Each structure stands twice: as structure tokens, then as C-alpha cells.
Amino acid sequence: MNYPYGAPAGPVSNPPNDRKQIIIVLAVVAALLLTFLGIGAVYLTSGSSKVKASPAPELVLEAMNSNGLDPFAPSVAVSNRPLDANARNLAPQGPVTPRGVQAVEGTTAGLYGGTGEASCDTAALANFLANNPGKAAAWASVFGIGVDQIPYYLDTLTPVVLTHDTWVTNYSYENGVATPFQSVLQAGTAVLVDSYGIPRVRCACGNPLSPPAGTPLSGYRTVGSPWDYYAPRQVVYVNYHNEHTTIINNTTTVVAAPNPAPAPASLTLLDLNTLQPVLRTVGGILNLAGLPPLQGALPTPASLNTPFVSPDPEVQTANGVQADGQPAENVLRQAAEATDSETSSVAAAESAGPQEGSPSVDASAQAPVDPSVPAAPGESSAAQAPPAPAAPAAPTSAAPTPTVFTGTGDIVSSLTFTVDGTQVSCSVPDVTAPTAGLICTDGIARTVSSSYLQTSSVTSGTDAAGVWTVPLTSSAGVERVTVLSATWTLIPTPTVEAPAPAPAPATETAPTETATTAPETTTETTAPTSDTSAPAVP
Hints:
- The chain is α+β, with helices and mostly antiparallel strands.
- It contains 14 helices and 22 strands.
- An eleven-stranded mixed β-sheet has the order 10-1-6-5-9-8-7-4-3-14-15. Strands 16, 17, 18, 19, 20, 21 and 22 form a seven-stranded mixed β-sheet that branches. A two-stranded parallel ribbon has the order 2-11.
- A hairpin with a 5-residue loop joins strand 7 and strand 8 (199-202).
- The chain starts with 17 loop residues before the first helix and ends in a 5-residue tail after the last helix.
């Protein structure tokens, strides 16, 4: 090799093979590209599946004494004792709607409880909001009122205690605004309700409340620890007084009166000390003397009782609804999956029931074997014995038959039910008494609040299958019985006899001498009356 400018100082290496290096680089790049494409495909696939299987919105379980996250105010609850199981058993039941919860009208007798004193310090809440204008503005926005109207609105509310686990839209105070979320409040929670029995304030945190979203409860994922008796089908949502829910062929029909009835003057509560009905006057808790006159009209309960909606897409997603208030797709999907899971569990239990070697209905229905015949080789004597008397268990597994109602009237005067396989009939001698004592064929003394025998309560206590249940109290406690038959009667109207004619004054039959003195007596008695009833003329 020729080096015109001198040979290199060290050994000369072979020049690089450019083509070979290009091929290697391309191969590495191709491998990396394929790797990234694979990762991207996996990511996109998983991302797509996450979108399709996005988590269900939250349903927050609020225990009765919990303050919750981001409360509006310190607790103003006065009643903080757990609700007695007897009180829960006495609470009126409602039909289970396709949303998976019961619907109960807000003015139903016994829907709420109370004691001799208010369960919520309404004045303390009013004072707190008055001293915290930022929270007051956010609180008032839930009801569409001004801050100056808050005390007047609070004065329309009544403190009560929930006897049911109750589904509501709850509002926490976050970043200066009221943030809605779906929540179930535990029975025993102190709340303020409006004149139609709709929960409006949770006393343990001062949070405003409104009706829940119009979605299936099973479409949510619960957040928080459920209490020991929590069951979704025992949860209620409160209907407006003039809305009646009817279920026909699994379709819910809500009929609203075109002209809402005037607000009732009182609510019938369940006294939590005596378990007897008690009337509680609606509102009128606060002393509004000295406040400026109310400016503008307060919203009516009817205008505030609508299922939850929101124009904010993020809020819609968090509460499981669309812009029009209809259930979001992931809520419907979650509800369908929950239903399928429940159906599969039931089907699996039914299919696993009559396994080989286990007792079954068919086996017990076989013809009895003569015990005098010796058992065949390989068969046990137990297999040859007559089947065990399992017949009494059959009625409990079968669906109850609809209650048969006879007669006409406003109140039930007699009912029949079954206790331990024995049919019991009870009559109500006095349907006008607040607490009716029953005369029953089994000799057990029972009582029932007459409000539970009235038409509205019977309707609320009858499920979609037409089965009426009613709580009865005896020395053993409170028991909700399934009524086989019941008889209606009219509430007797008390008759008022016309007063007997007053005897003729003695002066009419007196002699002439007495008659001459009558004007003097009359003048003496009427003259002062005349003087006192009319002003003196100058």
C-alpha cells in the first residue's frame, strides 16, 4: 500500500464494513420497534378494557354517628343512641322497586322515630351557618335559596330519627362548594325532614340532603363498613307525599298528583321510648323574632323532590347518572352483573341441593317402606325407614300467597296469620284507639298501633306480590307477621245527640205578681252588660 505522506505510526486495522453495520442497526431498530408496538398494543388493549370496565360509582355507607369526610358543620345531633331492633321491626315496609330498594311515602305513619326532645339542635346549625358565610352560601345553593333565607327554611323542617337505612344524595363541603355523592344513612341517624317527610339535613355533619339518583342501587360499589344488619333490599328511598309507586309486571309507574295537597300540620312518629305512635308538629323550631322579614318565597317540597341530576360531567360520573338523570352505562352494566351473579348463585345452590346421597324433596316423596320387610344386602336400615317428617319446612321455602282482603272501609278490623304452623285469628275490638289491643284465638295478648291498620299503611306494608305484613307487639317483643287474610271495616262515626230543649223559665209560668217584677230583674242584669259592652257617649 502506498503512503505518499508517510506510513502510520501503528498497525493499520481493516476499514469497517459499513453495510454489515447498517444491517445490524436496522435489525436492532426493527426489534425495538416490534417490542414497542407490542407494548403499545397491550397498553391500548388494557386501556380499552379499562374504559369498558370502568369502576362503578361509589355509594358511601354512613354510620349513624359518623361525621363523614368534609362535613359542613360540627355535629348538631342530640339523639345518638343505636336504634332498637324492635323499632326497626315496627317501621313500615314498602314495595321493592326495580331499583332494588323499597319506596315509602314520606308521610307514612311510623316511618320516622322520635323521643320527648328534639333529635337535632336546629338553632345550633342556624347559628353556625350564620357565622360561616362561605359554607352558608354553598349550603343554600343546594336548595336554591339565599343565605338570608336559611333560618326561615330551617324553621320549616322537623327533627326526626330514621327507622330505615335510607338512600339519599348527600353533600360534602369541598373547595368552597357543595359536592354531591350517593349515600345510605344508617337507621338511627338524626335528620331534618320537610313537611312531606323528605330528608333535607343530616344532623351529625350539617350536610344538606336531597333525593337519590334514579338508578339501581346494585350499580354502585359500596364504600365504608356496612353495619351488621345492612341489606340492600331493606334500604328505602323516600317518595314525595303525592307520588305513588305502583309495580306492574316489573315496571315501576310513578303517578304524581297534578295539584299537590297542602302540607300536613304534623307527622306521626314512632316514639322510640314507648314504641307507640306520637304526633310531632311540623317545623316551628326556631325563634325568628328580630330577623329581617323573609325576602322571596321558599321552595316547595314538590319542587325539590326530583331525582338527582347535574350539568357537570364529572359530577354525573361520580353519581352514576347521565345529563338527563338516567343511569350511566357502567351503572347499568354493574347492576346487570350483580343480578347475573345473584341468579347464578341461586341456580348453583338449587342445582347443588339434590346431590346423590343427600336428602331431597323427591326422596322424601317416595312411597314409605314397610319396616317389617328386612333390608336388602348393602342397604342400611335407615334407608328403609320412613322419611323424616320434613313437611313443615316446605311452607317457609314457598313464596307466601297474596293476602286476601274482604269487606270495605278505611281500617282493618280482623286479620289471620300463622305462628309456628298454627293459624291464628285476631280481632280489633276498638279501631278508634291509638293503640289497639287484639283478641286472638291462641290466647296471647297482642297490641298494634291503629295507624298500621289504616289504608295508607296497609298499602305501604304490602309488597309487589300482594303480601301484607304488619308489626304486632306481645310480651315476647315485636314480631312482623305475614297476614293470610284481613277484613276491612268503616271507622265508626261518633253520633252527637241533639241537646234536649231547655226547660221553660219559671218566670213564664209565674203568677202575675212575679211577672211584674221580671223587668226589674232583667234590667238589673243587662244594664251592666250594656254599659260594659258599649263605649260611653260624651
